[in-house]
Amino acid sequence: MEIDYKKLDRDRKKIVKMKESDRYQNVLYFLYSKGFFKLVNKPRIIRNKKIDILDILWASKIEPRILEVFPAAFIHFKSKFSNIDALPKGLEKIINQIKTNSDLGHDYKGISYIDMKRWSNINLSDKRSKPVNDQKLLRSFKLSKEVLEKLELLANENKTTRTEVIESLIMSYNKSS
Fold first, then answer.
1. How far is Cα 126 from Cα 7, in angstroms, rounded to an integer?
2. Helix axes 65-76, 22-33, angle to 10 degrees
3. Average pLDDT of the chain?
4. Domain check: are 37 and 108 in the same one?
5. Quick check: pTM over 0.70?
6. Which of 15, 21, 25, 79 could form a disulfide with 44 if both were Cys (CB 3.0 to 4.6 A apart)?
7. Beta strand spans in 81-170 (E)
């Protein structure tokens, strides 16, 4: 079997052209700026543009690591994506499993669930987003005025928030039993 060097050269040129496209550069820059990729050559800056899900899927054909980090990027920065209806059902299911911190999940296009989940639990350079393991859940309680006053007093004395006071009380209770 002979190697068709002309075909290989055409394919290489096609991939180089695809990597230089705005679609690819936009996806790569977004993932790079949020801390998902460390790159030798920084991608071109294309600012304030939502990333189309179809562009993510297209770019992942060139660079498979994009699919590996995409579920975490989607969880942390959902508002930065457009055309969310185009999200494949299999990928949507994986995203939901990662959100619920499930240990078991399905692989997607040769990328293991564990590899995709790992990215959702790292500290990103964007300090505004928390790893899935560290995210807090909203709960509401009805407390008497007296309890609220004591809670506020404890928070002021310790220079913390009311939430931190409640968390520390609960954690100290668990440690003593």
1. 42
2. 60
3. 82
4. yes
5. no
6. 25
7. 81-82
94 and 18 in a single domain? The answer is yes
Residue 16 lies in a domain: yes
- Full residue range of the structural domain in which residue 151 is found: 145-176
In 3D space, the residue among 2, 64, 3 whose CA is nearest the CA of residue 37 turns out to be 64
What pLDDT, in 10s, does the model give residues 84-98? Answer: 898 999 999 999 998
Q: What does R_g of the chain's alpha carbons equal in angstroms?
A: 23
User: How far is residue 64's CA from residue 112's CA, in Å, rounded to a whole number?
Assistant: 12
Report if residue 109 sits inside a domain.
yes
Looking at the domain assignment, is residue 160 inside a domain?
A: yes
Counted domains in the chain: 2
* Residue closest to 45 by CA, chosen among 59, 16, 25, 31: 25
